[in-house]
Amino acid sequence: MDKTNLSVVLHSQGDLRLEHRPIPEPGPNEVLLQMHSVGICGSDVHYWQHGRIGDFVVKKPMVLGHEASGRVVKVGSAVTHLKPGDRVAVEPGVPRDMDEFFKSGRYNLSPTIFFCATPPDDGNLCRYYKHSANFCYKLPDNVTFEEGALIEPLSVGIHACRRAGVSLGSTVMICGAGPIGLVCLLVAKAMGASQVVITDLSSERLAMAKELGADFPQEVKREDTAEQLAKKVEELLGAQPHVTIECTGVQSSVQTAIYATRSGGVVVLVGMGAEMTTVPLLNAAIREVDIRGVFRYCNTWPMAIAMLASKKVNVKPLVTHRFPLEQAVQAFETTRQGLGVKVMLKCDENDQSP
């Protein structure tokens, strides 16, 4: 085993470094992974650029990365379901306490949860990383490492569509065609949505959405009002959508989501925007439009793996750029500039395959 553990470490706002750290030793219920593919998320870039997200502030050096897959190289003494050589996808949120949220199956809401690359917890953008074995999921032979890493963003789509109640015949509007909007599209289609409208400012992103199965890619102009856009969506579908999944966090887009959704429908808020947002709440209230939040995901990895293994969902086109771990800063800059869709870092110097 290579005796150095090259890691991508954020020291403070704007200060991203490549450092050699010790290789960790797994505890009884942990496994040591040789990381293979790690995707860069908008939150990683946000921490780099701003040093914080809401109440989560980078106060000490933190390893970034939470969209990950790798190979087991060592197992803890109590681990029975994994062995060295197994290829796994990593679920980055591990509950620390058996609290009410854990017991009810909504462990993502546990206030004490460990989460990769959320201060003060280190992420897995490194050569070697240890993680709870119960939150490492074996990948079938026909699912690649990159697909395994993409289960994390795909899980946001699964959780959002579950919260929205997407089912056979649903009509769906998705606001934003970035990586999260696109995975919501893939999942909505796989769950039986009959028609999906997706909106974005970028024609390139909408072209990708069309390739991935969007029925109506709708370009947004900055001068469009929320009501105008809502009307346009109704005209495209012939009726208002049952469900709207908002992936931008932008105030005007949240307003559009509420106006566009049919009475008795559901708006799910996935995008993170300003703490205070002005929305037409009375409009939602008198039309019984439910507004639901989404915080990460829970209980999604088994479904995601089944979707990928059965080829019901194809996430491969989402990866547009690949960099070796040594070029992490360049990879982060590519993501910051909004180039392509998903940038993937390859952490295993002897295996740079997808």
UniProtKB/TrEMBL annotation:
Cellular compartments annotated: Cell projection, Cilium, Flagellum
InterPro entries: ADH-like_C, ADH-like_N, ADH_Zn_CS, ER, GroES-like_sf, NAD(P)-bd_dom_sf, SDH-like
Keyword Ribonucleoprotein: no
Source organism, top-level taxon: Eukaryota
One MF annotation (Gene Ontology) recorded for this entry: L-iditol 2-dehydrogenase (NAD+) activity
Cofactor(s) demanded: Zn(2+)
One GO biological process term: sorbitol catabolic process
GO cellular component: motile cilium
Pfam family, one: ADH_zinc_N
Protein name (database record): Sorbitol dehydrogenase
Gene encoding the protein: sord
